[in-house]
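Re-run requested by the PI after the first attempt was lost when the workstation crashed. Everything re-entered from the original request form. Ligand of interest: uridine-5'-diphosphate-xylopyranose.
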Amino acid sequence: MKFNISKICCIGAGYVGGPTMAVIANKCPHINFNVVDINQERIDKWNSDELSELPIFEPGLPEIIKETRGKNLHFSTNVDEEISKADMIFISVNTPTKKKGKGAGQASDLKWIEASARRISKHAKSNAIIVEKSTLPVKTAQTIKEILGVPDRNESNKKFYVLSNPEFLAEGTAIKDLENPDRVLIGGEDESPISALVEIYLHWVNPEKIITTNLWSSELSKLIANAFLAQRISSINSISALCETTGADINEVALAIGADKRIGKYFLNAGPGFGGSCFKKDILNLIYICNHYGLSEVSSYWQKVIDINNWQMERISNLIVEKLFGTIAGKKIGILGFSFKENTNDTRESPAIKICKDLIEEGANLHIFDPKVELKQISKDLGLDNSFSEAAYSEDGQWYYSESVIEAANDADALVIVTNWDIFKNLDWQEISKVMRKPSCVFDTRSVVNKVELRKYGIKVWSLGIGV
Ligand code: UDX
Ligand code: ADP
């Protein structure tokens, strides 16, 4: 069967669905794209006239939205209607870790996937191609296929084809990653629907970068790519602690080992621990699958990657308390950066959450500044309102929202750099040193500051993987 793809629907207008469809729409002006979501507020933001009000912050995204929105890219809450018109349907809904029931804390919660599959089964036209885009545990396609009645026809006598096409974009560089991917992976069982999706990517991706596999290899590869990347970060983070105690410098070690082509220089930046919506969730999924198949040695191996990550965050907050003379109760500490990495407003699994919670628990008054994360998101993540006035400073532990670095630094005993936003690389430390309480301390978890310069202004510096 030959497919003619002229209408594509994407279910889920989040960090994956939104940018992915925007880039494909930009590359394929002859196809009409409808991104649908059940969240009206999110859709309103995607349709906002002010491009600075898009629901996600991603460099290069506003420009692409400007070019495509209202032409061949549309955002709406008309989920069923757009499903019914589409030749191809991408599923890009959220798949967080299950909070309760069987597999709680490890397995992915597939209720949003299931809900989407049920809607597709009811409303989509026969012969529609269904593409899994969300990061999913292996064999999810099987669940989708069962709900859709593949390979047989479903209750309404419709036929569907299911493909896996995992997205490898990283937040903050999503547009660049989508426009110039290292590879595009497409898993499926039938030749023709695979070719239909390959043809779409061929509009801008070199054919040799398009890998086609069976469904399960495709699903598993996405999980394993993330597990390997996360493992690299835990490896370098474990060595950062060793460097601090031995006098080695983690950046020099990373440079030296990364020069070996077999190791490679990327993804070797020690930091406060990996965050984001994928790494932890995917490793937990991997652990769950391994345990399910009785591979307990394999699951314990991957569990260590998560253990080291948690330990890294914990050891940073412990160290801050220790360096500030054993107590931070009632002290003001400025937190620079709250998103899980630079160039995104996403805070999912951000190390800043754990570090801030620990410091608040110790009684600190935190002043949090992030260039893109909003106050209400921080409130939600910390599970704590910030409706205190400065006059109410106490030793109970609380937090305030800062509009600038200098505001966060004013009268603070310490500043903690948690996210490597570019602006933290060029701060006016002379000015900052004047407003901080003495002795002033900077905890640099991302190796962004020039230690010599800070010391010149009388600021003590502790750098992750270097120490002092
Ligand atoms: C990741 C994968 O990179 C991407 O391919 C997949 O599609 C989704 O998951 P993302 O989570 O958006 O992307 O960002 P990434 O750049 O991988 O960073 C993840 C975390 O690791 C961040 O908290 C980041 O600060 C941290 N990190 C990354 C380090 O601590 N050191 C590094 O060298 C790289
Ligand atoms: P990701 O990072 O994977 O894109 P997000 O949480 O940012 O995850 O986005 C997922 C989106 O999917 C959310 O906006 C959510 O409202 C949407 N969603 C979840 N279930 C459905 C559904 N059944 N139909 C339409 N949209 C859905």
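Saved to the shared folder this time. Residues 193 and 219 are 17 Å apart (CA to CA).
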